[in-house]
Specification:
single chain; 60 residues; mainly alpha
Length: 60
């Protein structure tokens, strides 16, 4: 994963996380939903499959 891809993933995660907080969501279910949403957005932007595990790895 290059720097651009990681940047896109981090931005997608931040946006999804903010949306979840604004809706008052928390806990493991919200975390999974944020990872899935960030993966979906990243996949569309980058044009290659990004799994929720990839998002989690990029955020560590």
């Amino acid at each position: 994963m290059n720097e651009r891809e990681e940047s896109v993933i981090r931005r997608a995660y931040a946006e999804a996380s903010l949306a979840a907080r604004e809706k008052g969501l928390s806990g493991i279910t919200a975390t999974r939903a944020v990872l899935a949403a960030a993966a979906k957005v990243s996949t569309r932007i980058l044009g290659r499959t990004i799994a929720p595990e990839d998002v989690q790895r990029a955020m560590q």
